[in-house]
Automatic annotation (TrEMBL):
<dbReference type="GO" id="GO:0004674">
    <property type="term" value="F:protein serine/threonine kinase activity"/>
</dbReference>
<keyword id="KW-0418">Kinase</keyword>
<dbReference type="InterPro" id="IPR050660">
    <property type="entry name" value="NEK_Ser/Thr_kinase"/>
</dbReference>
<keyword id="KW-0067">ATP-binding</keyword>
<dbReference type="InterPro" id="IPR011009">
    <property type="entry name" value="Kinase-like_dom_sf"/>
</dbReference>
<keyword id="KW-0723">Serine/threonine-protein kinase</keyword>
<comment type="similarity">
    <text>Belongs to the protein kinase superfamily. NEK Ser/Thr protein kinase family. NIMA subfamily.</text>
</comment>
<feature type="domain" description="Protein kinase">
    <location>
        <begin position="17"/>
        <end position="264"/>
    </location>
</feature>
<keyword id="KW-0547">Nucleotide-binding</keyword>
<dbReference type="Pfam" id="PF00069">
    <property type="entry name" value="Pkinase"/>
</dbReference>
<dbReference type="GO" id="GO:0005524">
    <property type="term" value="F:ATP binding"/>
</dbReference>
<keyword id="KW-0808">Transferase</keyword>
<dbReference type="InterPro" id="IPR017441">
    <property type="entry name" value="Protein_kinase_ATP_BS"/>
</dbReference>
<feature type="binding site">
    <location>
        <position position="47"/>
    </location>
    <ligand>
        <name>ATP</name>
    </ligand>
</feature>
<dbReference type="InterPro" id="IPR008271">
    <property type="entry name" value="Ser/Thr_kinase_AS"/>
</dbReference>
<protein>
    <recommendedName>
        <fullName>non-specific serine/threonine protein kinase</fullName>
        <ecNumber>2.7.11.1</ecNumber>
    </recommendedName>
</protein>
<dbReference type="InterPro" id="IPR000719">
    <property type="entry name" value="Prot_kinase_dom"/>
</dbReference>
Length: 498
């Protein structure tokens, strides 16, 4: 960006938002991390925009547009400061912890599994369906990897509405030619007026770019051959139609595309996993091995990682996953999803587990002890959340393998170090540290800083219950101590009466 920011670290905006630093720049805006002085611990993204030629209408329009939206894949705007005398204005919106699709693609070397691309397509179609369902429809117009965030607990989110607009119809072509070359539909550059079908083209260009490791975003002869083994077969003709130059030749709506993709077989080995689970003998009394997971902050990815760990352990013996933080809503959400999908669930009065793909999910026992579960399972995984209750740290440390989840973002490194110092962590604590969505360099940096080896970069995996992949490989290393054949550890204090 050619304009300098007016905000500096330590500066306070409107007496409420303490600026911590820049987290992104591009086009005509900077994005800062803001800490809420009225709500301690709450962070916001503060978007600083510079308006050229006194064209304040676009900034005001973006603010009004975002304020009117309410969807889980869009950031909420909670405050807006109109342009000042220099044209600088500010939007305060949800801060999304994670990384852009650009960075994610780099972290996996441009090789994104086909089932992950299918999930990405469904999530983006979900939010496009919402936007296009407005009257008049809202056209995003700039789907590209840098405008899409991958959040550990939420999946994909659209983060930049700088050139979105309400489609009113009647114009022969767009007045202003906007969009990113390679991802924008032809009509955004003079061949007609953009509408909701322009976003469908953008979706196709984005998926093709991700599927080919960034080599292609426009359909060309021989593309089917280049996509062999990179996508589910049924997705290839869908991409081809999304990328038709003429809008009339594309699909008519995001809903139509989503309906087609719901029929694409993703492949599941849930039945095999269930058979493996049923064949495994129950452990001897009190021999359960306990894995405790806690995050340094909410939204880090603790629940996602805990379910992935439980899924892995379930292939070696009966496993119980426990929503261990008091008052946590996670078990209730899993129960609601299971009920909505038609799975059998225990009644509210029944003290029994919720079976999710062979993992037995439990609420925290009223007295906090796990003796009964220890007698039934070989492994117990405790999701302690962000540890915001009395005694959480001690419970976390009592696990056979305590796994701490922290942010891998460079600018949050000092925050992680401060958390470790406050917690009483030491190199001999036996804790293992996982950095969801972080690159290998972030794990290496934290290893060197702490002087320990047990720091792991945990790659993104859209389905925590999926088999295989890089996340499973890292978790195998982290859990090696209890996966070793014949491993026997003493009974932890979790199983003793308090």
């Amino acid at each position: 960006m050619r304009y300098k920011s007016k905000l500096r670290p330590g500066q306070i905006l409107d007496g409420r938002y303490a600026i911590a630093g820049i987290i992104g720049s591009g086009g005509s805006s900077h994005v800062h991390l803001g800490e809420d002085l009225r709500l301690p611990g709450k962070r916001w993204a503060v978007k600083e925009c510079v308006t050229e030629n006194q064209d304040y209408g676009n900034v005001q329009a973006e603010a009004e547009l975002l304020i009117s939206l309410d969807h889980r894949r869009l950031p909420r705007v909670v405050d807006f400061f109109p342009p000042d005398e220099d044209g600088y204005s500010y939007l305060v919106m949800d801060y999304i912890e994670g990384l852009t699709l650009s960075r994610y693609m780099d972290s996996v070397g441009g090789k994104i599994p086909g089932e992950t691309l299918l999930l990405f397509a469904k999530q983006l179609l979900e939010v496009l369906q919402y936007l296009h369902g407005h009257r008049p429809p809202i056209v995003y117009r700039d789907l590209k990897p840098s405008n899409i965030m991958l959040a550990p607990e939420k999946g994909l989110m659209l983060i930049d509405f700088g050139i979105a607009r309400r489609h009113r119809g009647g114009a022969e072509e767009d007045t202003v030619k906007l969009g990113t070359v390679g991802f924008a539909a032809p009509e955004q550059y003079g061949s007609g007026e953009s509408d909701h079908r322009s976003d469908l083209y953008g979706l196709g260009a984005l998926l093709l770019y991700l599927a080919t490791g960034g080599k292609y975003s426009v359909w060309a002869a021989g593309m089917e051959r280049r996509l062999e083994g990179r996508l589910p077969d049924m997705l290839v003709p869908v991409l081809r139609r999304l990328l038709r130059p003429r809008p009339d030749d594309r699909y008519g709506s995001a809903e139509e595309v989503l309906r087609i993709l719901e029929g694409v077989k993703e492949g599941s080995s849930a039945g095999i996993r269930q058979q493996e689970f049923a064949r495994t003998a129950l452990p001897a009394q009190g021999k359960a091995q306990t894995v405790t997971l806690m995050g340094t902050a909410s939204g880090i990815g603790t629940t996602h990682t805990s379910l992935a760990a439980a899924r892995l352990l379930g292939r070696f013996g009966p496993v119980a996953w426990v929503d261990y933080a008091p008052e946590s809503p996670v078990y209730g959400r899993i129960r609601s999803l299971a009920e909505a999908s038609g799975r059998p669930i225990p009644s509210e009065e029944t003290e029994g587990p919720l079976d999710v793909n062979g993992i037995h999910c439990w609420k925290r026992p009223e007295d906090g002890t796990l003796e009964e579960l220890a007698a039934r399972y070989r492994y117990i995984v405790l999701d302690i959340g962000s540890g915001e209750y009395e005694g959480a740290g001690a419970e976390f440390a009592r696990g056979d393998i305590p796994l701490l989840l922290a942010s891998g973002a460079d600018w949050r490194m000092e925050e992680t170090l401060q958390w470790l110092r406050r917690s009483g962590w030491g190199p001999g604590s036996g804790w293992k540290i996982g950095l969801p969505l972080a690159g290998v360099h972030a794990a290496d940096l934290l290893r060197r800083t702490l002087g320990v080896r047990e720091v792991y970069a945990l790659p993104f995996q859209p389905d925590p219950l999926a088999v295989g992949g890089n996340l499973e490989s890292e978790l195998r290393s982290m859990l090696a101590g209890i996966l070793e054949k014949g491993s026997r550890r003493k009974k932890g204090r979790f199983f003793q009466r308090k």
